[in-house]
Design the sequence.
């Protein structure tokens, strides 16, 4: 076996193998990041230990609060690992994270056609719910269709509130829809 072409970290592989042994022998372990999860999944697949590793992964991930921050960087790799492990909890969490951000969903980068289909359906269902909620939100604002000139101040105040909501929901110069809707509900937008 020629390891001259190996470009990974020997230390990372050793730690992942140690975590595989911990899972096999029922010892607790902690996953530091998504890369460790992917490597652990690959090792479990290679050693045919997926049924043993799968139930231990979610607990190992939860033990480290920084683990979920690493999922945000590459949720697709975690989703693929969760599918391989057949871990429902990790699958659900990573699927939700794959659907965002709204303007550029991460799930579009998925190479697995089955996962791409599942994520597309979930994204479409969210789109339908947003489309159904938008008219209700607008109806609750009670904007008069016709208004005399005396109501100009009302519209100015309303536009100011709306502007504040959208600017406070921005991240990287884009309005984040979940944050926008959350702020709409919190503020109540009195008419």
Sequence:
């Amino acid at each position: 076996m020629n390891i001259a072409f190996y470009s990974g970290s020997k230390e990372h592989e050793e730690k992942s193998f140690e975590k595989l042994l911990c899972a096999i022998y029922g010892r607790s372990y902690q996953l530091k990041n998504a890369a460790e999860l992917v490597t652990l999944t690959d090792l479990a697949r290679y050693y045919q230990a997926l049924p043993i590793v799968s139930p231990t992964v979610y607990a190992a991930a939860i033990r480290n609060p920084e683990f979920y921050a690493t999922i945000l960087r590459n949720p697709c790799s975690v989703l693929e690992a969760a599918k391989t492990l057949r871990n429902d909890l990790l699958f659900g969490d990573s699927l939700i994270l794959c659907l965002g951000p709204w303007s550029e969903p991460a799930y579009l980068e998925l190479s697995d056609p089955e996962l791409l289909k599942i994520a597309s359906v979930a994204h479409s269902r969210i789109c339908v719910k947003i489309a159904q909620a938008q008219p209700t939100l607008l109806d609750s604002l009670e904007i008069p269709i016709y208004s005399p000139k005396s109501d100009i101040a009302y519209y100015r105040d309303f536009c100011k509130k709306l502007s504040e909501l959208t600017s406070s929901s921005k991240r990287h110069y884009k309005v984040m829809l979940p944050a926008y809707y959350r702020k709409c509900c919190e503020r109540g937008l009195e008419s």
Observations:
- Residues 141-191 form one domain.
- The beta strands are 170-171, 174-175.
- Residues 76 and 109 are 7 Å apart (CA to CA).
- The chain has two domains: 10-109, 141-191.
